[in-house]
Amino acid sequence: MASGIKQGVKKAPPRTQPLKQSRRRYHVHAGAHADALNGLLLATFWQRLLGYFLDLLIAVVIWSPLEYSWRHFLLHETEIRLVWDFHEAGNIVVMVLYWGLANYFGNGQTPGKWVARTRIVSLSGERIGLWQSVERGLGYGAATLELGVGFLQFFWDRNRMCAQDRLAETIVVDVRKQKSR
C-alpha cells in the first residue's frame, strides 16, 4: 500500500479525543509485538472485577474439599476451621495453580475471564507463558496484601495495569465484538 499502513490494523485514536476515551486504549512502549498491541481496547474495571471474583469463587470451590480432606485424613484434625486468605499455604498453592494453569492453558482466558469477556495478553510474546501465568497468580496475592492498592492502580495507570499486570508484563483486553465506527 502506498500509505504504509497495513490493512486490517486499526489505528489508535488521535490525541484530540477526550482523555477518558484515550485512556481505554493500550499505549505502546517499543518493539514489533508492542506495535501489534497498540490501540487494543482494554477491559473495564467492572469486567476485570467480575472475572476476578468468578475465578476466586472457582478457586475456593476447588480449595475447600482439598483443604478439608488434607486436614481430616492426613493431619487427623477433629475441629476443622476453613479460612480463605492469602496467608495459608493451601490457599496460595491452589491460587497459584488455578490461575497459573487456567491462564496458561486458556491462553490468558480463565473461566471467569471468559464470562467477563476479557483476556490477558502478554507484552513480551505472542502467547502468555507458563511463568507469566504463575506470576499473575502471585500478583493477585501481592495486590491483596497491599490492602487492595495493587488493584486500584488500574485507575491511575495509563494502560490500566494493576500490580499483577506489572509483575507478569501483561495487559487485560476486552474481547467483546467491537461496533464498527
What topology does this entry show?
Elements: H1 19-22, H2 32-37, H3 45-74, H4 89-105, H5 111-116, E1 118-122, H6 130-145, H7 149-152, H8 163-168, E2 170-174
Antiparallel strand pairs: 1-2
Task: Describe, in plain words, how this protein is organized in 3D.
The chain has one domain. The protein has helices spanning 19-22, 32-37, 45-74, 89-105, 111-116, 130-145, 149-152, 163-168; strands at residues 118-122, 170-174. It is mainly α and 181 residues long. It has a two-stranded antiparallel sheet with strand order 1-2.
Through-space gap between termini: 22 Å
- Tell me the number of structural domains: 1
H/E element sequence: HHHHHEHHHE
Overall number of strands: 2
Percentage of residues in strands: 5-15%
Shape: elongated
Query: Order of strands across the widest beta sheet?
Result: 1-2
Helical fraction: 40-55%
Average pLDDT, rounded to a whole number, is 82
Largest sheet composition: 2 strands, antiparallel
Q: Uncertain spans, ≥5 residues at pLDDT below 50?
A: 1-6
Determine Rg (CA atoms, Å): 19 Å
Q: Give me the number of helical elements.
A: 8
- Which structural class best describes the helix and strand composition? mainly alpha
Task: Give a quick precis of the structure.
By secondary structure, this protein is mostly helical. Helix content is 49%, strand content 6%.
